[in-house]
TrEMBL record, chain A:
Main location: membrane
Name of the protein described by the UniProt record: Cell cycle control protein
Biological process, per Gene Ontology: phospholipid translocation
Residue numbers spanned by region Disordered: 1-31
Transmembrane stretches, start-end: 52-74, 322-346
GO CC annotation, single: endoplasmic reticulum
Subcellular location: Membrane
Keywords: Glycoprotein, Membrane, Transmembrane, Transmembrane helix
Species name: Otus sunia (Oriental scops-owl)
Comp. bias (Polar residues): 8-19
InterPro entries named among the record's database cross-references: CDC50/LEM3_fam
UniProtKB/TrEMBL annotation, chain B:
GO biological process: phospholipid translocation
Transmembrane segments: 91-109, 115-133, 315-336, 365-385, 1104-1123, 1135-1156, 1179-1206, 1218-1236, 1243-1265, 1288-1307
Localization of this protein: Endoplasmic reticulum membrane; Membrane
Name of this protein: Phospholipid-transporting ATPase
Lineage: Eukaryota, Metazoa, Chordata, Craniata, Vertebrata
């Protein structure tokens, strides 16, 4: 006899309702399947000393090995970092006065490389204390506009001027673009040879070719007609690189790299790569060098600092040794734990408890 | 005899009676009563929409609901708003709504507005879809029901036409045929049954399958033809709709202002089915939602589990944590901002170019942070918990171990949200009858007139009995269906209805199927059909005596006043009482009641015209005496009672009721001129005597032929058992109508008793009575049966000097019967006393007067009826007593033992008497031989308090002594109960004392006492007391309670308890309906609690903890980032990934974990109940566990954030590239953390975890490849792809995962090695081979026992003078249950023992066996002391022990000592004086 009453059926108290489905399932005996009886074959991980010992030692060995490799490779990285915010203090004071916004200010910084830097040399500019990751800064951009579309939403408050002329590119990120010009000179026998650098190929291929597009028009200046440069900029977007048409406008790599906002307040962005020709074919030879900097980007407002960095790159990234050290430390920790557990295990084996064996 | 005037008055009153039921009159006072109540607006007036009522009908009946029902909550239009409204009653949903709204405030928005809505919308949609589907199924059901067809009288067509149920209105006449369902509550006006009875089955209402009788409104029952609605000119006034199924009050007012009372006996309830009655007509009084059935639908009840409450508090902690974190963010942001004097590039000014001050910015940041860190409050937790619970319930319901083949039933989970409470039960409150026992009442013994008949054969039969009737239910039901269709053509033509009826019939396993008749549904195998109950083997001795009566003529035996014949009178009366004093419905399996009569008539050969004439005359006599029509009564009122009494002499000789039916048509004309005819019977006197003799022979010849298969359907199984017992002695209940009962008495033929009153059983009186007019002596006889505790007080006492011989006899009988009763109770039998009382007509009439008043009052009728019943049931003559065995259910002792080992305290709350209860408690190991039993039985509250404090003192003395010992032993194991092992106290308390104890002032001390006792037995407890007890323990002790019961009397207890378990047994479905879980056998409770409770609890707990961990760990990643972005609320993860992380990538594995994880296998959990204590004490979810989890979450998030942070520090990485390895590592950590926590990993786990990881990567890659501008500003374009080819990414993820999980892994390893919890140990057991496992479990168990025993021995050894007596008592107690099992078969010795222990009865022929009697006396007395008095009563207890050594001469002394002890405990104060001696 069926006396099933689900919550719904109960409300009616009708046998008609109660006994529905009787014919389809004569017996209410549940299936004797492994799932329904909760007897699925299962792997029951046994977390006792004996079973986990090899795991700890293996992990330890692996971590140590990886750590050593990482430390070795990080050590092979050459990294030269020059802080020019103090050396160009005149210029920075000059920039503090906003009336000088369109006047040029140059300064030069000398340094000596004691050893050659071999391989591909990358030139970065570094900023300290620049909170590019501020929430409202991060969102103040228009990806659609940078794709060449005629929209500039999300850019507040750098969307348009009071007279309605839209900014191109719009948004706080673009507006605050790093605009120092840094040139590297190799002082060879009192003559300064400008180190040849590559302006392109520094950004992600996908950024350059997919994410950033100039508006379509017969030439660039007409494409940006009806728009104005952002307020902090000295020149309009279509004059960012007058020499190379394919590095101008929105697809200018300096802009593209700047638009990829950094994760931390202290960061570096790739600026140039040394072109490996002539005496720089193997990298930068040891010797005296000079950075000539057109100082445009003020950092004193936020107590920031600016660097130029020359560095090589290996498979494990830059010169940061942290990962390698971390691997070594955790590898050691795992091995030590393994030993401790071994000790415990050996001690416990002597006094058997009644349920084991 | 009674004076004629009074008699006349009585007759006259009967004529104008207004009250239905028992034939009573309306006095002036009752009329007044009606008038006063009529004016109040609480009543409703029902009038048919016919004839002259039409105008009034328009006015009144329009106000009442029609029969259309709508149980859906929503309509298409209001679904969305209403569902949303209801969902937002949940605080969690409100919180998320608040977040969404907050995100629309531009100042504080953290995400894209739309994205924040996603989780909320997801949750709302899931719930809305669930609600919608539920509601839709209700809608479909409503529609089906509303469109059922029924026959309604149509005024236009002047006949009954088919109408949908929904078109039925109040005041409509409805005609129902057999097996049709009643569409609305209606007053029964006509039944095709000649007695105006309609049988209904209320299975649809309360699940009870036995038939119930309903009566046609008095005054309509005598109508021959069907009632004509056109001529119905009365109006019905009744109370307003209410949900009380057991009450209906009102009256019918005829056009001549006569009023006839209505009671629930006249009301057909919606949802019931008409059975065994060809056709009925009724007028609708309540329809649709106003019917009692609908008003009783309270809908599913919602209980909140303990775990859920705890989760809620922890969520509050999370809220606090969230606020703290947001405050940190706000303050940090303020400080960060104030460092800048000018606007830096990266701080975006307001549109007006100004910068907001740091404090305001900080304030705004607070809200931004709340939005950002919202995931800390786990939105998915609520949904996940619901899903997990559904999964758990699904698995519980599919457990094959809960399947009970005989009833084809398995566990039902009616409450979906408290499965985990099963793992935390501390107290079980159990009903006894039907819960611990089978509730298959089997007649075992009886004692008549002080002599015991112990039915040895019957006992043997029971022992060898095996349930053989468990035939394949499927095949039998299918044959039924086919047969049913053939019979059922006329019944209904609505397809659904027919189908359902087929199903119904199929679902009944008719016991009479051997007869090939399956078309009459009766209480199938659930009810009282099993042969173990029906077949009673008569006692040879008694049968012998019985046959003597049969050979004598009854009258002769009455005249003779010899001792023997007095005994035979007793025996006769005893069996008559058994057969009559009940409410059993008799039915014949293969035919409806009516047809049975005709067929019986056919069987009785009608020999001559003479006989036919006699029959008619007899019939007219019967008509006169039972319920004459008004005209007859008026004329016969002149002839006083003597006339009627003479007439009724013949009634005894009236043949079976078949004749009545046959003669009905012919008798009608005779009836009208019966006054003239009244002389005839007198003339026919002699003839009739002759006829009677003839008939006797005829009856005996009928006996030879196979007995007609009669089915007894009783409201309680005890009644059925008694009727079956009477039947075994050829005292067969033949038929029962409201007016008469026919009993086929072996030697005397059919006796038809005029049934004057039934005073039904109630729990206050604890007895029931029938008042009949004895056909032989023509006196009014009251047969009463009831609990001996109440009955013994009601007996006729020989307080005045008992010169009368019979009174002395009575006293002896009473004493001896009491002795037998005590013995029965000790054997665990249910005892009933049977008594009778002969009323003189005068007495009866006097009582009747009062009774009328009670019956006709409308307001406090119940109270008055109770008083009236009490007035009648006095001065009774004891006939005898019965012992009915209720066998223990299979596996009950094991289950109780296991549950107790699991640390659960079990209370038995029963309505039975103390001895029975205590014996059942012993039998089911609730009390153990070693236990010390304290009995609380006090008359006054003060005494009660005194006794309780004394007991407490006593226990404390013992436990403190024992605790010291146990501490020295340094027990590793948790003791199985709160007290020291070895000392177990049991408390027995009875209902009357319970009342005192439950008083506010004594509650605390009582609870303190019960906490110290391992088992508590409450006997004689009323349903209300049961629920009060449960509530007391639940509220005061803050304990998790479980109540288990099977009957309607357990409903309140089940509802009050945290978890209510119903046993789908024999006493209907009320308990099941009220319960949260319904099981078919008590033993299933073991697996339900120990295995499923444990699993559900640990699973859910672990899942909840994991959810907290998961959310805290994940959200903290964002929090740590705030320290590096000026607390500006930036998230380094793409918003989509952030939201979907919880919603998609990590949601399924925890759910699978919550449903399927298995820490310890079921077999081990069953074998080691001790493990239950882990979940009971919520070891898995202590506050410390919660904080440890949070701490771990903090640690893991720190690792997960700072390893990538330091790795990428100072590099040219951008925000979202930085977030990607963090997010990926977090995914691995969170999923692998789950794997560490998993105790068993099945392929489902593997698939789900690998699936989640794959899904994450596929999603991230696809998103990264396609999304160029869509996801402004956090553009994840190509980030994942870029990382997938970067080795550093992998190295970071691996290191982060390893370092983050190491501590927890280590912890688990150490837990599995050094600090093993029992659960972990049990888990290890699973690894061993079966043999090893068995060995290990045995050792484990032994360990516990040895620990316990050592302590026990040490303590009993160290018995001081104070405890010496106690240990002695313990040893006595330990002898008892083994030497005297409650269900020991009756032996000749036992009889001897029992009689011999009453030395003052000299006339017993048996000689006493010295050795035996000694033993018995010893057992009896020591047992009594042990049970009846609490521990301190040593002086009483010692006496018999010493005395027994002096041989049989001391027996009486010993017995007296036992009696003394009984007396002692009657009053505590008295007891204390005894103690001094």
């Amino acid at each position: 006899m069926r006396r099933e009453r689900s919550g719904v059926n109960k409300q009616y108290s009708f046998p008609t309702v109660r006994t529905q489905g009787e014919e389809t399932r004569p017996s209410r005996c549940p299936d004797n399947s492994a799932f329904k009886q909760q007897k699925l074959p299962a792997w029951k991980p046994q977390l006792s000393t004996a079973t986990v010992l090899p795991g700890f030692f293996l992990t330890g060995a692996f971590c140590l090995a990886v750590g050593v490799c990482l430390i070795l490779s990080a050590n092979s990285v050459r990294d030269v970092q020059i802080d020019y915010s103090d050396k160009c203090s005149d210029c920075s004071k000059f920039r503090e006065n906003s009336s000088n916004w369109n006047k040029e200010c140059h300064c030069s910084v000398n340094f000596t490389l004691k050893e050659d830097i071999l391989g591909d040399v990358f030139m970065y500019y570094g900023l300290q204390n620049f909170y590019q990751n501020h929430r409202r800064y991060v969102i103040s951009r228009s990806d659609a506009q940078l794709l060449g579309r005629n929209v500039n939403s999300y850019c507040a408050p750098f969307t348009a001027y009071r007279n309605g002329t839209p900014m191109a590119p719009c948004g706080a990120i673009a507006n605050s673009m790093f605009n120092d010009t840094i040139d590297l000179f190799y002082n060879l026998n009192s003559s300064a040879i400008q180190v040849p650098v590559l302006k392109t190929g520094n950004s992600w291929w996908t950024d350059k070719n997919v994410k950033f597009r100039n508006p379509k028009s017969y030439n660039l200046s007409s494409a940006f007609a009806g728009t104005a440069r952002p307020p902090y900029w000295h020149k309009p977007v279509y004059l960012l690189d007058e020499e190379d048409e394919r590095n101008n406008g929105y697809v200018n790599e300096d802009l593209i790299i700047w638009m990829r906002v950094s994760a931390f307040a202290t960061f570096r962005n790739l600026y140039r790569r040394v072109k490996r020709i002539r005496q720089f074919a193997d990298g930068l030879p040891a010797g005296n060098y000079t950075f000539r900097i057109a100082y445009n980007f003020p950092v004193t407002k936020f107590k920031g600092r600016k660097h130029v960095i020359l560095s090589t790159v290996v498979w494990s990234g830059g010169s940061n040794p942290f990962l390698g050290i971390a691997y070594v430390v955790s590898g050691t920790a795992a091995t030590l734990t393994g030993f401790v557990i071994t000790a415990i295990h050996l001690k416990l084996r002597k006094k058997k408890t009644y349920f084991q064996k | 005899m009674a004076d004629p005037i009074r008699w006349a008055r009585y007759r006259w009153q009967q004529l104008i009676s207004t009250e239905g039921g028992e034939g009573s009159s309306s006095s002036n006072s009752s009329n007044k009563c009606y008038q006063s109540s009529k004016t109040s607006g609480k009543h409703r007036i029902v009038i048919p929409c016919l004839g002259h009522f039409k105008e009034e009908y328009e006015k009144v009946s329009k106000l009442y609901m029609n029969n259309k029902i709508r149980t859906t909550k929503y309509t298409l239009l209001n679904f969305l708003p209403r569902n949303l409204f209801e969902q937002f009653h949940r605080v969690a949903n409100l919180y998320f709504l608040f977040l969404v709204v907050l995100n629309w405030v531009p100042l504080v928005e953290a995400f894209q507005k739309e994205i924040t809505m996603l989780p909320l919308i997801a949750v709302l949609t899931i719930i809305a879809v669930k609600d919608g589907l539920e509601d839709y199924s209700k809608y479909k059901m409503d529609k089906q029901i509303n469109n059922l067809l029924t026959k309604v009288y149509s005024r236009k067509e002047k006949k009954y036409i088919d109408e949908c149920w929904k078109n039925v209105n109040v005041g409509d006449f409805i005609r129902l045929s057999r097996n049709e369902i009643i569409p609305a509550d209606m007053v029964l006006l006509y039944s095709s049954d000649p007695d105006g009875i309609c049988y209904i089955e209320t299975a649809g209402l309360d699940g009870e399958t036995n038939l119930k009788q309903r009566q046609v409104v008095r005054g309509y029952s005598e109508q021959v033809s069907e009632i004509d609605p056109e001529k119905f000119s009365s109006r019905i006034e009744c109370e307003s709709p209410n949900n009380d199924l057991t009450r209906f009050r009102g009256f019918v007012e005829h056009s001549n202002k006569d009023r006839v009372g209505l009671s629930k006996e006249n009301l057909l309830l919606r949802g019931c089915t008409v059975r065994n009655t060809e056709a009925v007509v009724g007028i609708v009084v309540y329809a649709g939602h106003e019917t009692k059935a609908m008003l009783n639908n309270s809908g599913p009840h919602y209980k909140r589990s303990k775990l859920e409450r705890k989760v809620n508090t922890d969520i509050l902690w999370c809220v606090l944590l969230l606020i703290l974190m947001c405050l940190t963010g706000a303050i940090g942001h303020g400080i960060w901002l104030s460092r800048y004097s000018e606007i830096p590039f990266f701080n975006i000014p307001e549109p007006d170019g100004k910068l907001i001050p740091p404090t305001l910015a900080g304030f705004n940041m607070f809200w931004t942070m709340i939005i950002l860190l919202q995931v800390l409050i786990p939105v998915s937790l609520y949904v996940s918990i619901e899903i997990v619970k559904l999964g758990q319930i699904y698995l519980i319901q599919n457990d094959i171990d809960f399947y009970h083949e005989k009833t084809d039933s398995t566990v039902q989970c009616r409450a979906l949200n408290i499965a985990e409470d099963l793992g935390q039960i501390q107290y079980i409150f159990s009903d006894k009858t039907g819960t611990l026992t089978e509730n298959k009442m089997v007649f075992r013994r009886c004692s008549i007139a002080g002599r015991e008949y112990c039915h040895e054969e019957n006992a043997k039969r029971l022992e060898s009995y095996q349930e053989i009737n468990s035939a394949d239910p499927q095949c039998s039901s299918s044959t039924h269906m086919s047969e049913w269709r053939g019979h059922n053509c006329s019944a209904v033509n609505e397809p659904l209805n027919r189908k359902s009826l087929n199903q119904l019939s199929g679902s009944y396993l008719a016991p009479g199927r051997e007869d090939g008749a399956g078309d009459v549904p009766h209480s199938g195998h659930v009810a009282f059909s099993s042969p173990i109950e029906t077949d009673v083997v008569p006692d040879t001795q008694l049968l012998e005596k019985f046959s003597q009566i049969s050979s004598h003529s009854y009258q002769q035996s009455e005249e003779a006043s010899s001792n023997l014949s007095l005994e035979t009178t007793y025996i006769t009366d005893f069996f008559l009482a058994l057969a009559i004093c009940n409410t059993v419905v008799v039915s014949v399996p293969n035919q409806p009641r009516q047809k049975m009569r005709h067929s019986l008539l056919g069987r009785t050969p009608i020999k001559s015209l003479e006989e036919i004439r006699q029959m008619f005359q007899r019939f007219s006599v019967w008509r006169l005496s039972s319920s004459p029509l008004p005209s007859v009564k008026e004329s016969s009122s002149e002839s006083p009672s003597s006339f009627v009494s003479k007439l009724s002499i013949f009634r005894m000789k009236l043949a079976s009721s078949a004749l009545d039916g046959a003669a009905q048509g012919a008798a009608e004309p005779l009836n009208t001129d019966s006054p003239e005819n009244s002389q005839a019977p007198q003339e026919l006197d002699t003839v009739n005597v002759a006829a009677g003799c003839e008939h006797n022979s005829a009856a005996s010849s009928i006996e030879l032929s196979p007995l007609p298969k009669l089915c007894y359907e009783a409201e309680s199984p005890d009644e059925a058992a008694l009727v079956h017992a009477a039947r075994a002695y050829k005292c067969i209940l033949q038929s029962r109508t409201p007016d008469q009962v026919t009993v086929d008495f072996a030697g005397l033929g059919s006796l038809t008793f005029q049934l004057l009153h039934i005073l039904p059983f109630d729990s206050v009186r604890k007895r029931m009575s029938v008042v009949v007019r004895h056909p032989v002596s023509n006196s009014v006889v009251v047969y009463t049966k009831g609990a001996d505790s109440v009955m013994m007080d009601l007996l006729r006492t020989a307080s005045e000097v008992g010169t009368n011989n019979s009174e002395m006899e009575q006293k002896k009988i009473k004493e001896r019967t009491q002795k037998h009763l005590d013995d029965y109770a000790r054997r665990g039998l249910r005892t009933l006393c049977v008594a009778k009382k002969v009323l003189s007509d005068a007495e009866y009439a006097e009582w009747l007067n009062h009774h009328f008043l009670a019956e006709t009052s409308i307001d406090n009728r119940e109270v008055l009826l109770l008083e009236s019943a009490i007035r009648l049931e006095t001065e009774l003559t004891l006939l005898g007593a019965t012992g009915i065995e209720d066998r223990l259910q299979e596996g009950v002792p094991d289950t109780i033992q296991a549950l107790r080992k699991a640390g659960i305290k079990i209370w038995m709350l029963t309505g039975d008497k103390r001895e029975t209860a205590v014996n059942i408690a012993y039998a089911c190991k609730l009390l153990e031989p070693d236990d010390r039993i304290f009995t609380l039985k006090s008359q006054s509250r003060d005494a009660c308090a005194l006794v309780m404090s004394k007991i407490l003192e006593d226990i404390q003395k013992n436990t403190s002594a024992k605790k010291k010992k146990s501490q020295k032993l340094g027990n590793v194991f948790a003791s199985p109960s709160t007290q020291a092992p070895g000392f177990n106290a049991g408390l027995v308390i009875d209902g009357r004392t319970l009342e005192h104890v439950l008083h506010d002032s004594l509650q605390n001390i009582f609870l303190e006492l019960t906490e110290k006792c391992r088992a508590v037995v409450c006997c004689r407890a009323t349903p209300l007391q049961k629920s009060v007890l449960v509530r007391l323990v639940r509220n005061k002790l803050k304990a998790m309670t479980l109540a288990v019961g099977d009957g309607a009397n357990d409903v309140s207890m089940i509802q009050v308890a945290d978890t209510g378990v119903g046993i789908s047994g024999q006493e209907g479905m009320q308990a099941v309906m009220a319960s949260d879980f319904a099981i078919s056998q008590f033993r299933h409770l073991r697996k339900l609690l120990l295995v499923h409770g444990h699993w559900c609890y640990t699973r859910l707990t672990n899942m909840v903890l994991y959810f907290f961990y998961k959310n805290v760990a994940y959200v903290n990643l964002l929090f740590w980032y705030q320290f590096f972005c000026g607390f500006s609320g930036t998230s380094m993860t793409d918003y989509w990934i952030l939201i979907l992380f919880n919603l998609l990538f990590t949601s399924v594995p925890p759910i699978i974990y919550g449903v399927l994880d298995k820490d310890v296998p079921a077999e081990i959990l069953m074998q080691l109940p001790q493990l239950y204590m882990m979940s009971q004490k919520s070891v898995a979810y202590l506050p410390s566990t919660f904080w440890m989890t949070l701490l771990d979450a903090f640690y893991q998030s720190l690792v997960c954030f700072f390893v990538p942070y330091f790795t990428y520090y100072g590099s040219d990485i951008d925000i979202f590239s930085f977030g990607n390895p963090i997010n990926t590592a977090a995914l691995f950590i969170i999923l692998l953390h789950l794997l560490i926590e998993c105790k068993s990993v099945t392929w489902i786990h593997t698939v789900v975890i690998i699936g989640s990881i794959l899904f994450y990567f596929v999603f991230a890659l696809a998103f990264g490849a396609t999304c160029r501008t869509h996801n402004q500003p956090s553009n994840p374009y190509w980030i994942m792809e870029k990382h997938m080819i970067d080795p550093v990414f992998y190295l970071v993820c691996i290191l982060t995962t390893c370092v983050a999980l190491l501590p927890r892994y280590l912890l688990r390893v150490l837990q599995g090695t050094l600090f093993m919890s029992p659960v972990v140990r049990a888990k290890h057991l699973d690894r061993l081979t079966p043999e090893e496992q068995k060995e290990a479990i045995k050792r484990w168990k032994d360990d516990c026992i040895v620990n316990g025993r050592v302590e026990f021995q040490t303590t009993s050894g160290s018995s001081s003078s104070a405890t010496g007596a106690v240990s002695e008592e313990e040893s006595i107690a330990s002898v008892l249950p083994t030497s005297k099992p409650p269900f020991r078969a009756c032996t000749k010795e036992g009889l001897v023992e029992d009689t011999s222990s009453l030395p003052d009865i000299q006339d017993e022929p048996e000689t006493t066996n010295g050795l035996n009697s000694e033993k018995t006396a010893f057992l009896n007395s020591s047992k009594e002391t042990n049970l009846d008095t609490f521990g301190g009563n040593n002086s009483c207890a010692k006496a018999p022990v010493c005395a027994s050594e002096e041989g049989s001469s001391a027996v009486s002394l010993a017995h007296k000592a036992g009696l003394n002890s009984v007396l002692c405990e009657e009053d505590a104060l008295m007891y204390f004086t005894k103690l001094e001696c």
